[in-house]
Amino acid sequence: MMTGTTSPLPPTVEDRDAEIAALQTAFDEYIASSRELEDELDAELAKMQEKLAESSAANSALISQLESLNPQLSSLERGLAEAKSKHDAESNLRRQAELAQDEAEARAREAEGPLETLKTECDEVHEQLAFREEEVEETRLELEVEKERHNVEMEEMANQLAELTKKGILDTGNSPIITDKTTTKPKGCNESVSPSIMSGMTIETRGETTMQTMIMSNDLKMN
């Protein structure tokens, strides 16, 4: 007796061949893609190796340059240290100079008062000297005028005496009149009489002569 269900049929040879062919195709494709990927990876690896070699060469060159620059760097470091030391010394000197300038300005401000006083005193002295010079100049001019007037009077008196002498009115032998600038020294007078005393004696003698001349002129007018 037959049942209502049927059991699956076993695969046939054709089915197995088709499945194997499909598997082989997939495997071939996988192998092909794997080879392409492997080729790409090999090419990328070669590029990376080239870059690594270039980087290593560049690194070696940089190391060589750094080694050659080490003396220069050391020299620059020493120069920097010296420059810093000089800068510190100059800063110290500048601070000292500023302190000295402040002290000098303070002393100058302190000295302004006495200097101003001294300047005022000097100005006053200059004013006084200028005033004295004006007075001396005025006195000198007055003396010159007086001297000129006196000389004129002496010339007039000398002329009058000369006329009187010519007329015989005045006896020059007994007259005490002295017409020149010299003066006869009194007996017992020291030889070293000062010029001022001698001048005074001459002026007194001239005064007496002037008085005598005026008296004689008046007598002549009355006669």
Layout of secondary structure:
Blueprint: H1 13-167, H2 195-222
Number of continuous helical runs: 2
Determine the structural class based on helices, strands and strand pairing.
Answer: mainly alpha
- Report the major sheet: none
What is the averaged pLDDT score? 76
Run of helices and strands: HH
Attribute tags:
mainly alpha, 2 helices
Would you summarize the structure shown here?
Helix content is 82%, strand content 0%. It has 223 residues and is mainly α.
Report on the architecture of this protein.
The protein is mostly helical. The protein has two helices and no strands. The protein has helices at residues 13-167, 195-222. Mean pLDDT is 76; it is low at 174-204.
